[in-house]
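quick one, 172 residues, struct below
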Amino acid sequence: MITNLAFSITSNMMQIILFVLIINSMLLLAAKIMLEDNFNAMKAQNVLINQEFGLINQNIKKINNDLKDCSTVQQAFVPWSLFLAGINEKIPAGVRLFNISINKNEKTAAISGFAVERANLLNFKQHIERIPYLTNINFPLVNLLMPHNINFSFTTDIKIDKILPEEAPEKQ
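---
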């Protein structure tokens, strides 16, 4: 009877342990399924984030390339309008310019025109010699031989880096 009682207690204990293990297994299985679902959802979200990040990264690279292109264009830009305005401002009465040829690569200019009087031409020569971006002005003496109705021409080097918006010609 003790053996039956011991067997019965052992059997009941085994059943309880087995029942607890089954419940525990079911809970672990449910937890595993929930964790797998969460992992798969996070994985899908991570893929979307990576794709979106890739698109954003491509846009940033494109914008950076555009900015580099703009920088290159700006570095090559020469404010020729300021150059011409500076010369135009120095033209006195009695002098007309016919041609201004600019060679950007050689940084030179050839200027030709007409002066009514030699005094007008000398006045113009003095004015252009004060322009900071014109150097090595080659003003041939032949320009000064005639006293009236003078067709003149001269060449000059250009300091492109001196043609700056801050140095815009002042109105006189």
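The chain is about 55% helix and 20% strand.
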